[in-house]
Amino acid sequence: MTTANDEISYQVLNALQAFCNSLASLLSSRAVLEGFGVGDPSATATHALLLTVVQDVFGRLTTIFGAYLFGSSLVPEAKTYRFLADVLNDAAVILDTLSPLLTSPSFPLHIPGLRVSALCISASFRALCGIAAGGSKAAITLHFATPVNGNGDVGDLNAKDSSKETVLALLGMLLGTLIVPHLSTPSLTYGALFLLVALHLIINYLGVRGLQLRSLNRQRAGIAWRIYRSSGGSKVPSPAQVSRIEKVLGQPDVFRGDSGSIMGRCTIGSSFSDVFHDRFPVRLLEIFQQERYLLWYDHQCLYAHSGHDGQHVRSAPLHLHILLKEGYSNDDLLKAWCHAADACRAATSNPWTDTVLDEMEDGALSQIRTTLQDSAQAFSGFVTLLHGAGWNTDDVALTAGSPKAILASVEPGDGVIKESRKVR
């Protein structure tokens, strides 16, 4: 089996962060047992059982709602959620370890049920960690199992990864049994805890940042297109180069300039009725007659007011919407996103702000038409260079789940736009 360029470094760092997490979890487990009443003659097994049940209920409910809310975002934003999973896990470890302190006489706040609430929140964090880690790890495993050259085996990778985690957990527990008994004071316990958590997060961040994912999500596609356009269409960055620029905790729906500043954002898969509230520029249909998408600005961007210096300023930050037509493909998604990036850059460098709505609309339409022509001419060369640089353009992950709506037909009639909306 061929090994990906980033696999060895990731696996080493992943092993180190798992080892740190094993030691920190022992400290939290001891604190939870103290909270359950171990060593307290007045504590009962029934009380401990009921507390465990309450925690389990919170964890299961969180799993249900968490999977519904962001389950479809785990694969496109695998790096973000892989790191976020460990942040949530460490938050749970800290809450568990601090839980006995919440009922201590020295604690300044005496709130009934505070410790139980902390343990329930901890259970919810662990449930969210399980969702985020499960989905993102699956995407990362698939990345390692499908190298550019050679073949991989997802089953083999999963088996080896599980074996490695089992060995590390065992070593962590064995070492922890030697260390934890010596951490007998709160200062030693909390000092060791925060040191382990800090190491855990730093190592995990370095491991995730080093991943050279070859699938194009919104952020990676935007970076590649920006460099391609800046070079005059002569080159695109490799996955390794993009991984050094990509932000692990960046907003996925924003476009950034060469300096890294945010120019605007774009929503993919918006519905027609959500974008066009009171009026619709019919000429937009003519512009996109040959395309399987529409691109337009949020209605709030089409209003402007006079600033202190007399210049016209947009009433809202730049926000674009991509409306998908029936029969769209991955190429159409990527083309629409690249067009949106060009339109955002053009609207930032040459703003069409005017206090008269008709003038604003005319300027926006002209800019949309021009950027469509420019991006369409450059797009085919962009895709060709992406293939040569090692990117996987067949599996484009630009959307988190299915789009909100697909335009089956949009026809102007009697001054009213009739939309046939097909919701997936």
Automatic annotation (TrEMBL):
Subcellular location, record wording: Membrane
Pfam families (alphabetical): UVB_sens_prot
Domain of life of the source: Eukaryota
Signal sequence coordinates: none
Keyword terms, alphabetized: Membrane, Transmembrane, Transmembrane helix
Transmembrane found in the keyword field: yes
GO cellular component, one term: membrane
Transmembrane segments: 167-184, 190-208
Family, as annotated: Belongs to the RUS1 family.
Protein name: Protein root UVB sensitive/RUS domain-containing protein
Protein's organism: Tricholomella constricta
Lineage: Eukaryota, Fungi, Dikarya, Basidiomycota, Agaricomycotina
